[in-house]
Amino acid sequence: MKKRTTAYFLVLVLIVTSLLGCSRKNNIRTDEQITPDKDTSVQEKGRYLEKKVDLPELKKSESILKILRNKEKKFEVYAYDEAKSLYNCYTQKDDMSWSRSEPGWLNQKDLKKVSLTSMCLGQDGNYYAGFTDYSTTKSFLVKSEDNGSRSKKVDLPYLLKPAKKVKKATYYPSVNGIQVLADGSLVLLDMWQGNNLLVFSPDGKQQDKIPADTQKNFTVTGSTVIAANESDSGIFLYDTQSKSTTKTYDYTYNDNGAAYALLDDQTLLVGDSAGIQRMIKDGTMWEKTVDGSLTSMSMPTTYIQDLFVGGESPEDYYGVFSDSGSGFKLLHFIFDKNVSAIPSNQLTVYSLKENKTLRQAISLYQGENPDTQINYVAAMGEEEGNVSDYIKALNTELLAGNGADIILLDGLPADSYIEKGVLADISDIIKPLADSGEILSNIAGGYETDGKIYQMPLRFSIPVIYGKKDALTHVSDLKDIVDYMKSSSVPYSGPLTYHQLTRSYLALYREEFLTDKRLSDDKFSAFLKNLKAVAENTGAAETMKDINNSNKNKLFWDSTTTFFGIKNGKFQAGMTQITNISSSMMLFALLKDTTLDYGSLNSTFLPSGMAGLNKSGKNQDAAKAFLKFLYSKEVQDADLYDGFPVNGASLKKWAEEDDKGISIATSDSDGNYFTAEWPGKEDRLRLYDTLQSLNKPIKINEELDNILTEQIIPYLKGDIDLNQAVSAVKTKVSTYLSE
């Protein structure tokens, strides 16, 4: 497909980002919902199991664009062959194999230089497709004619009127979604219209505007539109003939899209990451038929596109999904009366915050092991709260010999758990993986103590310093930075909030004053004075207009002020965190054709998804099997924007991956504008080598860091003097460490 213009792509990126950034709080189980010790000797039988439908084998130059179900209720897979600039259609046969044909209506000459953006089989029996010419941002619609042998443009004057003007650029309506009613009326999703669906008559006249949450997908049946309401709290059925809502059902949405189906008896079906639920006509209670937590529907990389009902009894379902890691997939959900309704093997995993890679692994593991259920407790979900309260509750359980089988130690006092014998030695799992090269030995080596390993991250990020080359060599300690900073009249870096400045420098240099559970007064005084010098030099403040407070605990966060300041020579250096190849795009674009450079911060890495095994867990063998699975290529290949994989083959795959079709852009309030494309092979390989050289994990203890931060900030602001700050911190830290 043709590469999109940068500015237009940025708009699309923002929309996709909003889709990916939703909270999963409604899909998080609580302790009260989990009964891992329940007697499963006598279990109710019957549960929906998932089966993957094999899709047609495609050439390397082909990619799937859409999966539809035709009038004969056979699936059709539409693919685009980049090498031949040709659309192919693969139709499912009775024996489940696929036959290929060339859909003439999509392969017209006037469609060769434009990109397909949406497609559907209308309720009127015709196929429709939306196309966009990204050189002009103009879109248009075509429909199939003569049994699909040719296409005809749909007359829709709306698409010719400008939708938005940004400086000198003009953008036109975009066909981001299309459905067609039985009478040929069009229901159109245009990203410029916000939360509204537009209805057009067959002759192209606008008939209606339907308020809806357009991020939750929509579908049509007959003359009815099914969609999520604006408040994201329910599903409504809208009759386009009477122009009125006929039904509204309360519904708690989950992540990763939504799909709907309305049966002949008016039973409504909805599918999302929580599973598949049904509501009978005039009903008030949802019945969950397919539990998403026991299928791959709950995988963070999986987004449901369409939902269909098969012909089995009991009712079976087909789901069309897009997977950010492997493209499209077609899943069949069939009721098996012989399996236990509740899996006989139960494991529990605990973390303070939701972890995407863990969620992905749970879905994959349960799909391969239907007799195992992994109950995931994300104690805090996505909400803010008092970390100390959650940790105290967990500590009470663990020290009593209870608690989850596997614990993600992010933000938890891992060293204390090791000292108290809470965690089991997992070196028999990790060492063989590291020795064989299956996982990165440089990362695993950072967690070996006296021949034992008690924790291992699922992912890791790299904090880097970038800017003037000589600045990169002066980061060995905080004093080194301050001495270098004094040598120039140009500020060392762009401003941060006191909170972010403190957290980032604590992460790097905490061990300068806090070792072996002891705080050195003299060294802490020196640290504070140096930190204040950095704060004053860089213009740190309590709040910053271009720093969102929701990112306050994010380490090594560089603002657009820093980025453009370094580009324009106003600052000497900046610190940023790279979590995957795409997050390095702006960095490499900045460095291109300049004397600027980047490097690691003292070979440190920032771990995430720190997994440990509860020594008192009641399911040791099963827990170890799942723990090992967490580091498999199957899990680690997926890019969930939460860090680089620790699996060696997965990391190499990421580094070798080339995506020339992606570009991003950023700008600041002064009108500066910057674009970046996927890093070239040389840049990716250099980053790959750097990642394999890191050997020093940054240890984060949320409780301890909160104590330090709360006492340091008043000193940086000038509210207390140095002696008061040292005294306050020493008292608080000593009390914490003695507990």
Protein architecture, described:
This protein has 739 residues and is α+β, with helices and mostly antiparallel strands. Helices cover 24% and strands 31% of the residues. The protein contains 17 helices and 41 strands. Strands 27, 28, 29, 32, 35, 36, 37, 38 and 41 form a 9-stranded mixed sheet that branches. A 4-stranded antiparallel sheet has the order 1-26-25-24, with no helix packed on it. A hairpin with a 4-residue loop joins strand 18 and strand 19. Helix 7 packs parallel to helix 9, helix 9 crosses helix 17 and helix 14 runs antiparallel to helix 15. The N terminus is likely disordered.
Q: What key phrases describe this protein's structure?
A:
739 residues; alpha+beta; nine-stranded mixed sheet; four-stranded antiparallel sheet; disordered N terminus
Shape: globular
Major sheet details = 9 strands, mixed
The protein's oligomeric status is single chain
Strand content: 25-35%
Number of helices in the DSSP assignment: 17
